[in-house]
Amino acid sequence: MSQLQYYAYPDHGVRLREMYSYHQSVRVGDRIECSGQGGWDCTSGEMKKDLSEEIDQAFENVDRSLKDAGGKGWSQVYRVHSYNTDMSDEALGHMVRNLRKWMPDHQPLLTCVGVAKLAREEMRIEIEVSAYVGA
To answer: Which residues contact 110 (CB under 8 A, 6 or more apart)?
Structure first.
């Protein structure tokens, strides 16, 4: 597995690696794969209370994870998987606004799945992505 390079961004990313034995991203050749990112504060690990803020923070955490692995961020994302406990029009509308904000020049593949529960009781969204970073 020497071709795989794993990454855990500072503070909460490292804390999650130590507590649960997983990384935030992995570089596989010309791709970066990100673990599901929630709407937690990257320093404290505290979850945002407001749904819109939680979604915004999850998108920011994806960007942080991609850049920590040497990518450029959302501009290289080609696939998004979103797991949501709230599938309301409001929540999905906020997802779409973030997709447009973070990727104004392209539209990725998207799978958005409604789920009953996520890893943390207070989590309502988890986003994982695949990015092509080139050779």
So the answer is: 79, 80, 81, 82, 99
